[in-house]
Specification:
transmembrane helix, single chain, mainly alpha, 0% strand, 3 helices, elongated
């Protein structure tokens, strides 16, 4: 895999995470308003927040993995040592 493909995959994963996070926030606000106005109970909100939140968390770890962060730090350190 060349460097461009790897960069494209990382960017796509970050965009997917950000889109999913925005949708998660918007939908949960709407559900919170519905629960507050009509249900007088927040069990539906907590259910959605928990299960969808697991998916958001999974996408976060795929987009911003520690291994990629470590590789970036190694590359920066190698460039500093080479100067």
């Amino acid at each position: 895999m060349d460097l461009r493909q790897k960069a494209e995959q990382r960017v796509d994963a970050k965009i997917e995470f950000q889109e999913n996070l925005y949708k998660y926030l918007i939908v949960n606000v709407i559900i919170a308003v519905i629960c507050l106005l009509f249900l007088n109970s927040f069990w539906l909100l907590f259910l959605v927040m928990f299960f969808w939140g697991l998916d958001v968390l999974d996408k976060f770890f795929k987009a911003y993995s520690i291994r990629d962060y470590r590789e970036d730090m190694i590359e920066k350190e190698l460039s500093r040592m080479g100067e």
